[in-house]
Amino acid sequence: MKIKCPKCKENAELTMDFSLVKCGSCDLEMSYGEYVKFVAHNEVKYSDILGDYTGSTEGQSAGSLDEWD
Ligand SMILES: [Zn+2]
After folding, report:
1. How far apart are CA 5 and CA 10, in angstroms?
2. Ligand 1 centre and the CA of 13: distance in Å?
3. What is the spatial distance between Cα 38 and Cα 46, in angstroms, rounded to a whole number?
4. Domain locations in the chain?
5. How much of the chain is helix, strand and coil, in % rounded to 5?
6. How far is the CA of 28 from the centre of ligand 1 (A)?
7. Which of 5, 33, 34, 39 has the highest CB neighbour number within 10 Å of its CB?
8. Model pLDDT, residue 56
9. CB 29 within 8 A of CB 23
């Protein structure tokens, strides 16, 4: 199955038996156990960025104030 590569953020592949994570983009190859630890470790750093991401999906009509001129 496809998962996000923790290293380069491209699509990585998790083997069906959940034993190995492979990324073709950066040649990452680690066990799923290592992957989970890696992601959990980085989750702390990225949580702020992800928070901004979800907030920006709200639709906003930009520049509408200019029409009052
Ligand atoms: Zn990668």
Report:
1. 5
2. 10
3. 12
4. 1-47
5. 40, 20, 40
6. 5
7. 5
8. 53
9. yes
Give the containing element (helix H, strand E) for 14.
Answer: strand 11-14
Distance 56 CA to ligand 1 centre (A): 25
Cα of 22 vs centre of ligand 1, distance in Å, is: 8
Residues 23, 6, 9, 4, CA torsion sign: positive
Length of the chain (residues): 69
Residues 6+ apart with CB under 8 A from 7: 23, 26, 28
Give the pair of three-digit tokens for residue 2. 């496809």
Which backbone phi and psi does 28 adopt, to 5 degrees?
A: -65, 140
Query: Each residue of 6-43: pLDDT tens digit?
Result: 889 999 999 999 999 999 999 999 999 999 998 888 77
Give me the amino acid identity at 62.
Answer: A
